[in-house]
From TrEMBL:
This is Subtilisin-like protease SBT1.5. Gene3D superfamilies: 2.60.40.2310, 3.50.30.30, Peptidase S8 propeptide/proteinase inhibitor I9, Peptidase S8/S53 domain. It comes from the Eukaryota. Residues 677-781 form the Subtilisin-like protease fibronectin type-III domain. Residues 146-610 form the Peptidase S8/S53 domain. Belongs to the peptidase S8 family. It is found in: Secreted, Extracellular space, Apoplast. The active site is at residues 155, 228, 561. It comes from Prunus avium (Cherry).
Length: 787
């Protein structure tokens, strides 16, 4: 129930954003009317072939359509961006009546209201098994470290002077490159090089809603004033930098996934977020410029694909052969939190690596509580115990957005303060405690945050503790007698490696089921996203707090934002090693070779609970680059397969056209089956359970041999509990490389014992093997008992 209700809620929310087209929705409430009449940005799709010949360019035509909306030329809306590669049309700020007028024109095929997106805020290459010293036949060698592949990073821009972006020893810019280095504030054209081969910025959408940007705090150029884009770009394709560390932590060699790949920065995120009209312009440019991979660590609310500028831009990219990876979001550990879920996007969740930064709390009663922190600087006096106070005052309310200490600022001088983690900046809370005279901070998770710990570059001695141990500390403070008031200290232990278990699914990593298409399992994979070391700009302290004046060349951040560019870099390596692979083939290789066991040999744990994680948390599993280079078989998908998928998802012809720019005849597709028949490397079915009868479905899949000629694959079925699964045929004999063979999977389930409104998720797998390759697909069966 939860699933379908939320699904409906999201859809109806998104529809309520559309310009009202029926009189019944007009409100008698004046205030409401005023809000509804406010102009906002829309992305307008047009039929490009309808352009009257009197207009020399599409831009002239669009401007003319807009000036006709207003009797006064001076107040007529203006074109913010024109789109011509992944989408045909333009964006503009329109009143609801202007939007309606445009929508009524024959050549206007869709009007999409803009959404604002948010950022989903190095030992990781070694953890993934990528070493520069490896012999021939390994992924880095075979791909020549990703040389001549271009990764477009749509983000907050870039700090080009970082060593991670030097171009020493790189060959000339690939000849196919058509992009530009766009100059701007503190960003001359000459700053691009053979590593950073392109840089652009898109701010018209942001500024049409927020007014002109504040140029003392933001650069009107591709330069990064936040740090996020510099960090993600260097994860994807930073070159080798030694020595690298943040404040002495995580010392070693820093390297991106594809150290020789070229980078193009597309800055779309500004102080107020990332605006759809700017994001779509970045997709349009990235594909026209010649990017091979687009990396997007940004997301928002899930809406149907025809209202989702990221899904639309990503479709156009995928249609042009460009691989798109996107972060799953940080809304975990709850279900249905995954974002960027379109089946033509590779959706990446976050896991831990085998490195952490222990910083334990010692309590006055002798107990030691494990914590996690990256703090360096004047410390607490060794051996001394400090008075301990709890400032939360909200009983561990994990949704609290208070900055800690409100109203009790005078009582913390010389003390260590326990704050609830809450939903806002963790480092900012330390800043508040420091300014109030506190000597240290313990940031305790609430129930919602669970047991997962994130290390931060705090501005004072501070550490993070789990919900359960946070409660122990809160209880210790509450029950300490006046004779022995509570005391504590924090012991920083530096960097620890070869941590077990790893990987663990990060507690914040967003989870399935997929709220828009439950028959497509999302996230697709997980990759390193906790405590990741990567490049960082000047002028932004590592804590991100305004008062933090420390400068570091590298910083350690966590988020699915950090996981996504790992996969973007790997996709570049795979495409370099296999130039003929489609984006879907690359994703298939990453998914069917992913692993689900940790370095203890047991199923990966979920960081939020410490319990075993599931397919809803990790999708196909954790990426294994070396195996992905040689997957044996791939599940390929072409653009027309996605059209069939949209038909079978009951999208209208008109809505399909918004995404695909093509007229779709759905009659054939509907005869061919259901949306679960998209040739995806995972299989997922949702059964609505009525009564006690058996439920059954079938999937058709086609695999392409990308291994060796004359190979024979045999299937192994691991059914989920309580169901029967058969595969026909059970043997696939390939004569040639490139040959495709199909098989049929039948799934039969008996009704489960479910109370009305509840859901059960069971998973198994289908594995094809020729003795050398193992090609694994998760098979997920969700049963819902309607209310
Ligand atoms: C721009 O930001 C600076 C620094 O925060 C602030 O002092 C100034 O008032 C801002 N200017 C405008 C026009 O908002
Ligand atoms: C973790 O497992 C324990 C024992 O099976 C169970 O009681 C608990 O509810 C689980 N926690 C979560 C968050 O699923
Ligand atoms: C599409 O509509 C058909 C007919 O109403 C229904 O059986 C099917 O389940 C729908 N599919 C999806 C994915 O909603």
């Amino acid at each position: 129930m939860a699933l379908s209700l939320l699904y409906l809620l999201i859809i109806s929310l998104s529809f309520s954003n559309l310009p009202s087209s029926s009189s019944s929705s007009s409100s008698s409430d004046n205030n409401n009317n005023n809000v509804n009449n406010a102009a906002r940005t829309f992305i307008v799709q047009v039929q490009p072939s309808s352009k009257p010949s009197i207009f020399p360019t599409h831009q002239d035509w669009y401007s003319s359509s807009l000036s006709s909306l207003s009797s006064d030329k001076a107040t007529a809306p203006t074109v913010l961006h024109t789109y011509s590669t992944v989408f045909h049309g333009f964006s503009a700020k329109l009143s609801p009546s202007q939007a309606q007028t445009l929508q009524s024109l024959d050549h206007v095929t869709a009007i999409i209201p803009e959404q604002v997106r948010q950022l989903h805020t190095t030992r990781s290459p070694e953890f993934l098994g990528l070493r520069s010293t490896d012999a021939a036949g390994t992924l880095l060698r075979e791909s020549d470290f990703g040389s001549d592949l271009v990764i477009g990073v749509i983000d907050t821009g870039i700090w080009p002077e970082r060593k991670s972006f030097h171009d020493r020893d790189l060959g000339p810019t690939p000849s196919k490159w058509k992009g530009q280095c766009v100059a701007g504030k503190d960003f001359p054209v000459t700053i691009c090089n053979r590593k950073l081969i392109g840089a652009r910025f898109f701010s018209a959408g942001f500024e049409s809603t927020n007014g002109k940007m504040n140029e003392t705090t933001e650069y009107r150029s591709p330069r990064d004033s936040d740090g996020h884009g510099t960090h993600t770009a260097s994860i994807a394709a930073g070159r080798y930098v030694f020595p690298a560390s943040t404040l002495g932590y995580a010392k070693g060699v820093a390297a991106g996934m594809a150290p020789k790949a070229r980078l193009a920065a597309y800055k779309v995120c500004w102080s107020a977020g990332c605006y759809d009209s700017d994001i779509l312009a970045a997709f349009d440019a990235a594909v026209a410029d010649g990017c091979d991979v687009v990396s997007l660590s940004v997301g928002g609310v899930v809406v149907p694909y025809y209202l989702d500028a990221i899904a639309i831009g990503a479709y156009g990219a995928s249609d042009a052969g460009v691989f798109v990876s996107a972060s799953a979001g940080n809304g975990g550990p709850g279900g249905l939190t995954v974002t960027n879920v379109a089946p033509w996007v590779t959706t990446v969740g976050a896991g831990t690596i085998d490195r952490d930064f222990p910083a334990d709390v010692k309590l006055g009663d002798g107990r030691t509580i494990p914590g996690m922190s990256i703090y360096s600087g004047p410390g607490l006096a060794p051996g001394r115990m400090y008075p301990l106070v709890y400032a939360g005052g909200v009983g561990g309310d994990s949704y609290s957005s208070s900055l800690c200490l409100e109203g009790s600022l005078s009582q913390v001088k010389g003390k260590i303060v326990v704050c609830d983690r809450g939903i806002n900046s963790r480092a900012a809370k330390g800043d508040v405690v420091k300014k109030a005279g506190g000597v240290g901070m313990i940031l305790a998770n609430g129930v919602f945050d669970g047991e997962g710990l994130v290390a931060d570059c705090h501005v004072l001695p501070a550490t993070a503790v789990a919900a359960s141990t946070g409660d122990e500390i809160r209880r210790y403070i509450a029950t300490s007698k006046s004779k022995s008031p509570p005391t504590a200290t924090i012991v920083f232990k530096g960097t620890r490696i070869r941590v077990r278990p790893a990987p663990v699914v990060a507690s914040f990593s967003a989870r399935g089921p997929n709220p828009e298409s439950p028959e497509i399992l999302k996230p697709d994979v997980i990759a390193p996203g906790l405590n990741i070391l990567a490049a960082w700009p000047d002028k932004v302290g590592p804590s991100g707090v305004a008062s933090d004046k420390r400068n570091t060349e590298f910083n350690i951040l966590s988020g699915t934002s950090m996981a996504c560019p790992h996969v973007s870099g790997l996709a570049a390596l795979l495409k370099a090693a296999h130039p003929d692979w489609s984006p879907a083939a690359i994703r298939s290789a990453l998914m069917t070779t992913a692993y689900t066991v940790d370095n203890r040999g047991e199923t990966m744990l979920d960081g939020s609970s410490g319990n075993t994680s599931s397919v809803m948390d990790f999708g196909a599993g954790h990426v294994h680059p070396q195996k992905a280079m040689d997957p044996g078989l791939v599940y390929d998908i072409r653009s027309y397969d996605y059209v069939d998928f949209l038909c079978n998802s009951n999208y209208t012809t008109k809505n399909i056209q918004v995404v695909t720019r093509k007229f779709a005849n759905c009659n054939g597709a509907k005869r061919a089956g259901h949306s679960g028949n998209l040739n995806y490397p995972s299989l997922s079915v949702v059964f609505q359970q009525y009564g006690k009868h058996k439920m059954s479905t079938h999937f058709i899949r086609t695999v392409t041999n990308v291994g060796t000629p004359n190979s024979v694959y045999q299937v192994t079925i691991k059914p989920a509990a309580g169901m029967t699964v058969t595969v026909e045929p059970e043997k696939l004999a390939f004569r040639r490389v490139g040959q495709k063979l199909s098989f049929l999977v039948r799934v039969q389930a008996l009704a489960a014992k479910l109370s009305p409104g509840s859901t059960s998720v069971k998973s198994g797998s289908i594995v094809w093997s020729d003795g050398k390759h193992t090609v694994t697909s998760p098979l997920v069966v969700t049963m819902q008992q309607p209310l």
